[in-house]
Amino acid sequence: MQRRRQILPLNALRAFEAAARLGRATAAAQELGVTHGAISRQIAHLEQLLGVRLFAGTRGQPRLSETGRQLAACLTPAFDQIEEAVRPFYSRDDGLLQVASLSSFAVRWIIPRLHRFSQRHPGIDVRLGTSADRLDERRGSFDLAITVLEDETSLRPGDRLLFQEELGLVIAPGLLAGDGGVPDPRLRRLVASTRPDAWEEWHAAADTGAARPMPAGAPAMFEHYHFALQAALSGLGACVAPRHLVADDIAAGRLEAPYPFRKTRNCYVLRIMDSRDRKAAKFAAWLEEELRESALMPIIPA
Fold this sequence. Notes:
The longest helix has 21 residues, at 66-86. The chain is α/β, with parallel strands linked by helices. A hairpin with a 4-residue loop joins β7 (176-177) and β8. The chain has 3 domains: 10-85, Winged helix-like DNA-binding domain superfamily/Winged helix DNA-binding domain (Arc Repressor Mutant, subunit A), CATH 1.10.10.10; 89-160 and 266-293, Periplasmic binding protein-like II (D-Maltodextrin-Binding Protein, domain 2, 3-Layer(aba) Sandwich), CATH 3.40.190.10; 166-265, Periplasmic binding protein-like II (D-Maltodextrin-Binding Protein, domain 2), CATH 3.40.190.10. The protein has helices at residues 10-22, 25-32, 36-50, 66-86, 103-120, 198-205, 225-233, 243-251, 278-293, and strands at 55-57, 62-64, 95-101, 124-129, 144-149, 160-170, 176-177, 182-183, 188-192, 220-222, 237-242, 262-272.
């Protein structure tokens, strides 16, 4: 006679495993698409069912108990094995496709073009994730990732080079001064805290001599590039930004680039987690087509 399986609290086990692996309930909530409170309730429910404490320490600084470490060491490979077992069945032409990307690239480049992919492939539901936790390939919490490498030497087998980053100064129309069309030195420098050295990096690569004065005032800091660029669009100052983030605004006349853009070592890379995934292959083909059609963002030759 076949043994009946015991009913397992799978949601609670998943919540605990994610929190144990990532080290934070907040990160676990982001990965599983639930709230921080939901993770805490599931872990408390699991502790009640098992009759053991899985976390010790204070509420602000929890740490795994010995029992928690033992359970996590068993659950992580078990969930990995389940994930690997079902992955081939997700490789259909339609369904959910989870794409990880840096937030600025997602907001300012992918999303404005994503309607064209949806029109071509209406059966594929693209979910964009921008959390840094989702860029952890060890768990494969996405199907496809668009990430940045410092140079080509960091490429992995199967990675696709998309384009090399270029930095340049952008400013709202009407804020350029003098016959040479240079930014007024009294303007504020707009800086994204995610890349605080962008001005210095661009200035070191650019031919910016005395004839090209730079804004000298104290910088205005913003949490993300899309905030800093919105400030530039509003005329609050000048910003040094990657070309792909401002190409549409320059083409539409919403921003001006008085100096040439300069290449950096950063390379944008496309990484598909499973080569058998047909949905990911369709998204990759569409993405590369969009890039090829943009004269401002050429594909790097193989």
